[in-house]
Amino acid sequence: MASTSESMIPVVDFAKWTSGGSSRLQIAQDIVAACKKVGFVYIVNHPVPDHLVDEAFLWSRLFFDLPQEDKLKAPHPEGWAVHRGYSWPGLEKVSQAISTTNDQERAQQLREVPDIKESYDIGSDQNSSQPNQWIPDEVLPGFRDFMLRFYWECFVAGGEILRALAIGLELEDENYLLEKHSGHNNQLRLLNYPPVPAETLENDRAARCPAHTDWSSITLLFQDDCGGLEVQDVASPGKFVPATPIKNAIVMNVGDLLQRWSNDHLRSTSHRVTLPPLSDRFEGEQRMTRRRFSIPYFLAPDPDSVIACIPSCMGADEPAKYEPITQAGYNQMRASMQY
Ligand SMILES: O=C(O)CCC(=O)C(=O)O
Ligand SMILES: [Fe+2]
């Protein structure tokens, strides 16, 4: 297992996953070690074909380059219940806050800083409680077909990674985690961070994506070569280290639900998107940052599945820290702060 010295996020080569035997076990152990220590891992030679990832970025660019009135033909529905469709700059406010007064004050502060990004969320077409919000096909012919294909290709890769996690956690059944994921409750998100004067990000007058943790089981992230994603350094909280883009790698991270499921053995680490760290990050007098595209894919268990402590993550001297909860119950608890 290699790690880039700059970011300390380990790199795991998934190429030999299908060859079985000891390489499979090693890959599983390396991924789990990274998820325990950092909560983030780069996965190279993963199952999503590179040409599909390239194509996904092309479609994403075509989508975001549409006139605003076309994108607004598939608006994100109001409220927090449905997480699909197009969100325009400033709509989404990420918040970690849940219940205490302080947290709510913090949530309010975050609400006052607009997010300079656009997003488009896609799910399974069979998920009737989260109906997809498609733009009419004639606006961008082929977009819907490609995105649904990409959605399911990502689930194939995510499913293998869930198997690797189960093996690395020493569960007897490699499908232990995967079997709670039919795939219909996942979410594919296209993100476009438009150029913005560096100064507005530096002075906290706007954010690309404020620090947050993801909620679900795992996230697979594809990012372009712009840079700007940063991950909290677990050794010194408050310090963030860059998750420098690696060509064709998936940046995989653990979400809050999997942290809870694993009795905190696996770590859901805070991350954010800020100024690109590259030397060519600014252009012109206003120091405009480069435009950035990224595509996260969130895997979530099915809504009625009960998330109770993974057996290998507890023992006589280590009781389960959390009550069992359904995915839907957990989501509801978190979602009301999002919009
Ligand atoms: O754009 C990125 O690289 C990260 C986005 C992210 O963390 C999220 O959408 O949860
Ligand atoms: Fe995230």
TrEMBL record:
GO molecular function: metal ion binding; oxidoreductase activity
Keywords on record: Iron, Metal-binding, Oxidoreductase
GO BP, sorted A to Z: small molecule biosynthetic process
InterPro entries named in the record: DIOX_N, IPNS-like_FE2OG_OXY, IPNS-like_sf, Iron_ascorbate_oxido_reductase, Oxoglu/Fe-dep_dioxygenase_dom
Family matches, as Pfam families: 2OG-FeII_Oxy, DIOX_N
Cited SUPFAM superfamilies: Clavaminate synthase-like
Signal peptide start and end residues: none
Domain Fe2OG dioxygenase as annotated: residue spans: 184-301
Coiled coil: none
Family of this protein: Belongs to the iron/ascorbate-dependent oxidoreductase family.
Identification of the protein by name: Fe2OG dioxygenase domain-containing protein
Provenance organism: Penicillium cosmopolitanum
Biological classification of the source: Eukaryota, Fungi, Dikarya, Ascomycota, Pezizomycotina
